[in-house]
Amino acid sequence: MANFDTGRSAGQLVRMERKERGAGDSHSEAGGEIPGSRGKAAYILVDPAPSALPVLLAVPHAGRHYPDELLQSMRNPGLAGLRLEDRHIDGVAKLAARRTSAALLVAHAPRAMIDLNRAPGDLDRDMVRGGDGGAQKQTLVGWRTRSGLGLIPRRLPGFGELWKGPLDSADVEARLQGVHVPYHRALGGALARMRARWGAALLLDIHSMPPLPARFSGAPAPVCVLGDRFSMSCSGGLAAAAFDYLSDAGLMVAHNRPYAGGYVLERHAAPSEGIHALQIEFCRSLYLDSQLIEPSEHLQVVADMLTGLVRHLAEQVAAMGHSGGSARRWNLAAE
Questions:
Q1: What's the distance, Cα to Cα, between the start and end of the chain in Å?
Q2: How far apart, in whole angstroms, are the C-alpha atoms of residue 202 and residue 276?
Q3: Which 8-state DSSP code applies to residue 230?
Q4: Contact predicate 314/55, CB 8 Å
Q5: What is the chain's mean pLDDT, rounded?
Q6: Which of 37, 42, 39 is nearest to 183 (CA)?
Q7: Facing residues of 104 across strands?
Q8: Which CATH architecture describes the domain 2-120+168-330?
Q9: How many other CB atoms are there within 10 angstroms of residue 92's CB atom?
């Protein structure tokens, strides 16, 4: 392996790495297993080696694989699933990843089964037969769990209880070990590899949201919310750059309210160690039909915005790693 010329600009680094990769270097990894699915992978990770950009797109809430056993245990699986899913936002992320060669992690397991943006112990134990949530123990739960949206969603506002009866602790443990644990292991590993290569890495955790009300009388409602856990998960410069880029693209953007980011950012972001993370919520009305069910012709427009944002932020992340003071090594001819 040869030391890369540290006199090159961050933009040159990104462009040269993309060129070196070529078209056939992407590595796809299907991992985990959705309980009751007869072997369906819980996620797929497309992790180019070597990475073309220091950016990873992750989509934890768009999974649409519902095993029969799960559907049979839900009171109204069709409506509940639609309400819980970040419906088809994975299509936006896939297009952006394909166009930029950014790494991509997409969950296949539905949020109704297990919420990958919640901590393993953030479970309403009254949902579990005998009050036992399996191997993970935690006496205090967050406000989202108390409102019904914990590790395994229990109820939805205006909808009521999601499940016909309590869950078995073995079922909860199977969801954790088959979906939650391997997803976060894959996410952490991909970010670690990216940081090792570039000196810095950025996770864009992609979500969608129902239409928000206007914040002020007569003011348009936000259609995009950026969350950085109130500056805890990402450098201020990157967050500001993302805000400005999306605003300039014509979106009404909010910052941290009402979505500041959840467990994914809390667990994986480490700005002081070069790993930054932003949660991005796109309003479903931007890319779905009037019923907010199927993709509309505007999905391509949102994908264009995300593509441009990835390229814009990749330059800055590369510059941050490039200026970190440590000489990095780049796998060139050997790969």
A1: 9
A2: 5
A3: T
A4: yes
A5: 87
A6: 42
A7: 46, 57
A8: 3-Layer(aba) Sandwich (3.40)
A9: 29
What residue ranges do the domains of the chain occupy? 2-120+168-330
Provide DSSP, 253-272: EEESSS----HHHHHH-BGG
- The model's confidence at residue 329, banded by pLDDT at 50, 70 and 90, is very low
Residues 208-230, mean pLDDT to the nearest whole number: 91
Distance, CA of 61 to CA of 83 (rounded, Å): 11
Helix (H) or strand (E) holding 106, with range, is strand 103-107
Q: How far is CA 186 from CA 18, 55, 89, 273, in A?
A: 23, 15, 20, 19
pLDDT tens-digit profile of 42-76? 999 999 888 899 999 999 999 999 999 999 999 99
Residue 194 to residue 320: CA distance in whole angstroms: 13
Selection from 305, 251, 286 nearest residue 99 by Cα: 305
Q: Which residue has the tokens 């605003």?
A: 247
Helices 299-322 and 10-21: angle between axes, nearest 10 degrees:
120
Is pLDDT of 334 > 70?
no
- Residue closest to 154 by CA, chosen among 190, 93, 113: 113
Sort residue 330 into left (φ over 0), alpha (ψ -120 to 50) or beta.
Answer: beta
**pTM given for the model:** 0.87
Q: How far are the Cα atoms of 137, 142, 179, 193, 295 from residue 131, in angstroms, in the given order?
A: 11, 17, 22, 39, 40
